[in-house]
Design a protein that fits this description.
By secondary structure, this protein is an alpha/beta fold. The chain is built from 8 helices and 13 strands. The chain folds into 2 domains: about 170 residues, Thiolase/Chalcone synthase (Peroxisomal Thiolase, Chain A, domain 1); about 140 residues, 3-Layer(aba) Sandwich (Peroxisomal Thiolase, Chain A, domain 1), CATH 3.40.47.10. About 30% of the residues lie in helices and about 25% in strands. Strand 4, helix 3 and strand 5 form a beta-alpha-beta unit. Helix 2 crosses helix 3 and helix 5 runs parallel beside helix 6. The protein is globular. Bound molecules: coenzyme A (COA). Coenzyme A binds next to helix 1, helix 5 and strand 12.
Length: about 325
Amino acid sequence: MTLRAVVKGVGHYLPERVVLNSEFEATLDTNDEWIRARSGIERRHFAAEGETTSMMATAAVHAALRSAGLGVDDIDALIVATSTADLTFPSAATMVQAQLGMTKGFAFDVQAVCAGFVFALANANALIVSGQARRVVVIGAETFSRIMDWTDRGTCVLFGDGAGAVVLAAEEAAGTSDDRGILATDLNSDGRYRDLLYVDGGVSTGTSGHLRMQGNQVFRHAVEKLAATATTAMERAGVSASQVDWIVPHQANIRIIQGTAKKLDLPMEKVVVTVQDHGNTSAASIPLALSVAHAQGRFKQGDLIVTEAIGGGLAWGAVVLRW
Ligand code: COA
């Protein structure tokens, strides 16, 4: 018998304020048509003043626990994937722990930018299969609106805020690709590409800084690396692309999503797309997409799902799981 990390619940939180593309037209040389055509984004949510990553993460955890039929006391560990923690430290995860009233177990952050949720899922899986935790909540939560340069039209129109959470629990399984739960993971990074996507602030500058991106260079890496990591994870899981029911990709740009699906030879009907409504919410984008698709009743038990993401670092990876 093998231990598998099985999804028991999923939930999300989006800030109330919705910002349409047209709102940027007042202050920037841009327009709705350009943003839609180049990115697929139509609107995004921005956090209210004083609304933080840990607050949104906590709301998403409450929703995910409700969906799992579990309480805070049932959880052994919390992992928050974020690049926009409220403070340099403590971790966003311990802040979430406090807001939940959770006084046992452990909590920590994972920082792999837009690939953060995939890295956090892989870590949660490792904790579960090694017997160190039985129930783990994995959260992706971001307030990228706090690190935007509002004069840079090449970046500030692309990002949004939000949070999503997934509850994983250990279940005994046969150890085959028919099992429910996480079947395989693949993680990669290459720090030589740090200048393509980074924030120009931090402890070394004494400011939280602004996001800087060579968008067309990131684009060039994205499709190739995403298709490669998804393929590796599928090989490890012992499944082929033709068996996949859903791709739930990082939601950065519709053209990257389409290009990756094409390279994997999968039709867009099998791809969950939320980028039009959320923009790029970095580590929050995959759990948000999972939660929205679940709420729409799109997944059924036993569906084979592939998630894949790439972000600053560069860091990229994929997870294959059976719902
Ligand atoms: N409105 C209008 N024009 C804009 C614009 C905007 N919001 N942003 C950039 N432009 C302009 C550029 O200034 C450039 O003008 P120029 O030719 O006069 O210099 C032109 O559009 C083309 O810019 P380019 O960056 O080559 O466009 P693109 O087709 O690559 O699209 C992105 C830009 C950012 C949408 C695209 O590169 C992208 O999505 N990259 C990946 C980004 C990403 O996903 N990052 C996160 C990974 S986690």
